[in-house]
Design brief:
alpha+beta; 4 helices
């Protein structure tokens, strides 16, 4: 591989057993927010885990920092998907699960990474807002031994819009007016 495959950093994902606690910590202790939260399941996503179609559910929270880089929190809601297994391997502790890097062309990047012999632990498609017909594609690659984390790439089609969040948690404004 001679050309630069990655064009930027999109987000880092932390898997947690309690997303509400994790969001509170980011908001109250570190002043990071707002957080937008959704539930992902069979009603709004499809997934292939380790080469087999799989049904699983999780809660996800996203926070966009001023730079455009995002923080993602994921809490598994069952034992079937990749996140529950990751929590088990980390003895239930919150931990970095994956890093999503941007790519110029999703199809070419996916082909190049598969060509390196990397395993694909997750291929998923996520629905957007109700009036949007397109889906976001996300693919994880097993780069743990080489890079120390799972690598994600994604494809967001033009015109895609996220659905309305189920919950938004903002940082309270603690500034006091000057007297």
């Amino acid at each position: 591989m001679t050309a630069t495959l990655f064009t930027g950093a999109n987000h880092v994902c932390i898997v947690t057993r309690d997303i509400d606690r994790a969001v509170r910590a980011w908001v109250e202790r570190y002043g990071v927010g707002p957080w937008h939260l959704w539930t992902k399941d069979d009603s709004n996503m499809s997934a292939v885990v380790d080469g087999r179609p799989e049904s699983f559910a999780f809660r996800v929270g996203l926070c966009t920092l001023a730079s455009g880089f995002r923080l993602e929190l994921i809490q598994p809601l069952d034992e079937r998907g990749p996140y529950a297994g990751s929590l088990a391997r980390h003895e239930g502790r919150d931990h970095v699960h994956h890093l999503r890097l941007d790519v110029a062309d999703y199809g070419d990047a996916r082909e190049s990474l598969v060509g390196l012999g990397l395993g694909v632990p997750l291929d998923a498609a996520f629905d957007g807002a109700p009036d949007v017909e397109s889906t976001v594609s996300a693919t994880y690659f097993d780069t743990m031994d080489e890079l120390g984390f799972t690598l994600e790439i994604g494809r967001v089609p033009p015109g895609f819009a996220m659905p309305e969040p189920e919950l938004v948690v903002s940082v309270p404004d603690t500034r006091q007016e000057a007297r």
